[in-house]
Design brief:
- The complex is a heterodimer of chains A (295) and B (231).
- Chain A contains 12 helices and no strands.
- By secondary structure, chain A is mainly α.
- In chain A, α4 crosses α5.
- The longest helix of chain A has 41 residues.
- Chain B is mostly helical and 231 residues long.
- Helices cover 87% and strands 0% of the residues of chain B.
- Chain B is built from 10 helices and no strands.
- In chain B, α2 packs parallel to α8, α5 runs antiparallel to α10 and α7 packs antiparallel against α10.
- The longest helix of chain B is centred in the first third of the chain and has 43 residues.
- Chain B starts with a helix and ends with a helix.
- Classes of the chains: A mainly alpha (295), B mainly alpha (231).
- Chains A and B meet through α1, α2, α3, α4 and α6 of A and α1, α2, α3, α4 and α6 of B.
Chain lengths: 295, 231
């Protein structure tokens, strides 16, 4: 067996990720120069961009050569079975584990824990997201298996979301709508789409294109509803970050907050000096790894 | 090996192992895939693992701190006008660059039978995102509760969905999910964290988040409007 398949479509993915990364890089370059931030940051920015770029390219390539073919096959094999309802529980399990592997979900959860100073636990948000996506993919599979119109799911879903908005805690509402955009990442969307299209292809009376559409919308809606429900039930606590609480490693936010009130421009600069040190430290720690990557 | 790296390796394994184990089990028990497909999957899983590790390392170690710093500088130094224009350009640029948006544009081109060209759609969606990102920045600065903007946006979406031709409804809702790719998300989150850390004030978390959520409404409305006029 030749190993050529590993490189299949590689140039295309390289180009796509490059396109996505360039505007962000230029914008940040512009801001770093415009705000006259220290030169070390430029170097640091390039290192971070190169690592994240290489990482995303490898990730997408891996999804394309390994996960998509398997997902398509699974969809058509399961859809062709006499008891095709099995797509529903399997859709749930795969939705759950695919969300665990979603890169941006990890970042969202750690940022949530950090900016709430530990009040909202990152892992709770993550498992709620996984559960949400799993449930809604099961719902999407039900729709494909039994032919339920898209309207019947999405309109009540968003109405429920609007109602929950006024019942849930404001912080959870904000996180909920963000996670809607985050959960629809490259692993979940491509993997589940491939499976749904595989299934819709073999089930009579389903149009694979039309039934494939709408599944992403369900995946985007799932976390919105479930995270707001979580906010509804989450124990009341001080939603504001407790100052002088446990200081986590790279927590610049707390330090900014402490001298926050009546801040003179000079004070901001002082804070930034602190941040710079922090970044430099981290950057030294990251050295080993980025060298590995470049070699 | 630095502590950070160890944590990231642990996180990557926790992220990838479940899906790999489940898929291998399904292949062995349910689908009984041919061996070639199995090895192809293993190769893909190795790439995905290495990729997630590099991505998280780059984002955690340098991009998040830089994004947070730029966010706090923007609020500290920039004028309101400057911020709103910068936010619009940022939203517009990341959308035009997002690969998934192009996929969406082809789907719409197809669904409209060629009436809505790919460029028209990409620009409509990008303007939608740019507008909502500016609105989100304005909200943070003015302290407007996010639920009013979200409720307003989604009620508009509901109303439009009755006017929009059927072929467009599902695609419009999908459009909301495609604009914020994995490259843009860390930057947007970090900017939000940085900006609100300087503003201080009431509930930090409700101010910090919501940018991505608001940015997702733009494209839904954009595609629906195109559907209403051209469909």
């Amino acid at each position: 067996m030749s190993l050529n398949f590993i490189l299949e479509g590689f140039a295309h993915i390289l180009l796509e990720v490059l396109m996505a990364v360039l505007p962000i890089m230029f914008l940040f370059l512009f801001f770093i120069i415009y705000f006259k931030l220290p030169k070390e940051m430029l170097l640091n920015l390039f290192k971070g961009i190169i690592l994240a770029f290489a990482g995303l390219v490898l990730f997408l390539q891996g999804v394309n050569i390994g996960f998509i073919p398997v997902a398509g096959e699974m969809g058509s094999v399961l859809g062709a079975m006499p008891n095709r309802w099995i797509l529903i529980p399997i859709g749930f399990i795969l939705g759950f584990v695919a969300t665990l592997a979603e890169p941006a979900v990890r970042i969202l959860c750690s940022q949530v824990e950090k900016s709430s100073s530990g009040y909202i636990k990152g892992f709770i948000v993550m498992y709620t997201l996984c559960l949400a996506v799993g449930l809604f993919i099961a719902l999407g599979m039900t729709r494909i298996v039994y032919g339920i119109p898209f309207y019947y799911l999405i309109i009540p879903g968003y109405l429920l979301a609007i109602i929950l908005m006024f019942l849930s805690k404001p912080s959870f509402t904000a996180i909920a709508f963000d996670s809607g955009g985050v959960a629809t990442g490259p692993m979940t969307v491509t993997f589940i789409m491939a499976m749904a299209i595989g299934a819709a292809d073999v089930i009579e009376g389903r149009d694979s294109v039309a039934d494939g559409f709408g599944l992403i919308a369900l995946v985007a809606l799932a976390p919105i509803i479930m995270i707001m429900l979580l906010g509804f039930f989450y124990p009341d606590g001080d939603e504001e970050p407790i100052k002088d609480s446990v200081k986590s490693d790279t927590d610049l936010q707390e330090d900014n907050n402490e001298d926050e009130e009546e801040l003179a421009p000079g004070a901001i600069l002082q804070d930034n000096n602190y941040i710079d040190d922090d970044i430099l430290e981290n950057h030294n720690e990251g050295e080993v790894d980025s060298d590995e990557n470049q070699s | 090996m630095p502590e950070n790296i160890k944590e990231i390796i642990q996180e990557v394994l926790q992220a990838i192992c479940p899906i790999v184990v489940i898929i291998i089990l399904l292949q062995l028990i349910v689908t009984k895939s041919p061996a070639s497909l199995f090895w192809q999957f293993i190769a893909g899983a190795i790439l995905v693992t290495a990729g997630l590790f590099l991505f998280l390392t780059g984002v955690r170690i340098s991009l998040l701190p830089i994004g947070e710093m730029v966010g706090s500088e923007m609020v500290g130094k920039g004028s309101l006008y400057f911020l709103l224009v910068a936010a619009f350009i940022f939203g517009f640029a990341i959308t035009v660059a997002e690969p998934d948006v192009r996929v969406l544009a082809h789907q719409v081109d197809f669904a409209s039978g060629g009436a809505i060209g790919t460029n028209l759609l990409i620009i409509a969606v990008a303007i939608g995102v740019g507008f909502f990102v500016s609105l989100a920045i304005l909200r943070i600065l003015m302290g407007i509760p996010i639920k009013y903007l979200l409720a307003g946006g989604y009620i508009l979406v509901m109303l439009l969905s009755f006017k929009t031709p059927d072929a467009f409804v599902a695609i419009s809702f999908d459009a909301g999910g495609v604009t914020t790719g994995p490259m843009a998300v860390p930057f947007i989150l970090a900017l939000g964290v940085g900006a609100t850390s300087v503003l201080g004030g009431k509930s930090e978390v409700s101010e910090t988040f919501g940018l991505i959520g608001l940015a997702s409404i733009g494209p839904v409305i954009g595609v629906m409007l195109l559907g209403v006029f051209y469909g």
